[in-house]
From TrEMBL:
GO biological process terms held by the UniProt record: amino acid transport; mitochondrial transmembrane transport
Pfam families: SFXNs
Organism classification: Eukaryota, Sar, Alveolata, Ciliophora, Intramacronucleata
Recorded GO CC terms: mitochondrial inner membrane
Top-rank taxon, per record: Eukaryota
Protein name: Sidoreflexin
Length: 322
């Protein structure tokens, strides 16, 4: 485990997939829910002063300090320094999404079920994104309403549209049950494009990998790369939600599905929660948070630059976002 400092982003090696996997499992752990606002405030003060006051460091191990960091990061807004609404914290993302995943993937994909489940899912996604937004990005009420309406309508239309098409084509039952997935993927694309549209217009900040110094101007090409890498992640994240229906289908075929309604419901919810937790950390960890590219992948202004050490800049790094 790394020595704790405020300049480190994680106790794990984020340059490796397994390091990112373990990091995000710590961030989304439901165990981080059970801390009062007073405890979160106390942890925040300890972490803020640990690098300044040697006496504080002597009281805690690196493991304890990293634990505090993960608890704070999964409950506190990084810019506002205030607790996020408990329903929309990363620590509560999995338990809150279990009934949403159940509605999307396990319930029969009837039109009314899809309408209610997709609307509830996109409403939650909208509120989660808003509560965890970059506080420096200001969107008007009209833009927020357009984003929300577009996400809900695209999810419902995509879900019902693919359901109608598959039924017309006499597709297999399992494929028809996956129709809500297409609605989720379409809505994810709309949401991400809306959120990143200002980046396409203005560009994003990029840095020299060697010195971590910001480079002049903003890069639209980096914004495009960040968008498509994030889009791949957004496409992978919902896939595990649709594994439980497959498991349940084959359990019923093998006549080993529980007969009792309560036990069956408990199994369905447990499967939804398990695959949601596994899929979330696996999906988010696919790409590093900070992408590294060759200067030739960006605009011509970033080629043949030298950094403050007098070395030619060979690698450029930037934050891809979530």
């Amino acid at each position: 485990m790394k020595r704790y400092t405020n300049t480190e982003d994680s106790a794990e090696d984020l340059t490796t997939y397994w390091g990112r996997l373990k990091h995000f499992q710590n961030i989304i752990s439901p165990a981080n829910i059970f801390y009062s606002p007073e405890q979160l405030s106390e942890y925040g003060k300890i972490l803020e002063n640990v690098d300044k006051d040697p006496s504080i460091r002597k009281q805690y191990t690196d493991q304890q300090l990293w634990k505090m960091r993960y608890v704070v990061d999964s409950n506190i807004h990084p810019q506002l320094k205030e607790p996020v609404n408990i329903l929309f914290r990363t620590s509560t993302f999995v338990p809150v999404n279990v009934p949403l995943a159940f509605g999307l993937a396990v319930l029969p994909p009837t039109p009314i079920n899809q309408l209610l489940a997709q609307s509830a899912n996109q409403t939650y996604n909208f509120m989660f994104n808003y509560c965890n937004r970059n506080a420096s990005n200001v969107f008007s009420n009209e833009m927020l309403a357009f984003s929300y309406g577009g996400a809900v309508s695209s999810a419902v239309v995509g879900s019902l549209g693919t359901s109608w098409l598959f039924k017309k084509l006499n597709a297999p039952a399992l494929l028809i049950r996956a129709c809500p997935l297409f609605g989720v993927l379409i809505a994810n694309t709309f949401n991400l494009f809306f959120a990143r549209y200002p980046d396409f217009q203005k560009g994003i900040q990029v840095f020299d990998d060697e010195t971590q110094e910001p480079l002049p101007g903003l890069s639209k090409e980096a914004a495009k790369i960040a968008f498509f890498r994030t889009l791949v992640t957004r496409y992978i994240l919902p896939l595990p939600m649709f594994i439980p229906p497959i498991v349940i289908y084959y359990m019923k075929q093998a006549k080993c599905y529980p007969q009792g309604r309560a036990i069956g419901l408990a199994l369905d919810l447990s499967l939804s929660g398990f695959f949601l937790y596994c899929g979330l950390s696996v999906g988010i960890g696919i790409f590093p948070q900070y992408l590294k590219v060759n200067p030739t992948d960006l605009e011509s202004q970033y080629q043949n630059l030298t950094n403050s050490k007098g070395n030619k800049i060979k690698t450029i790094v930037f934050n891809k976002g979530l």
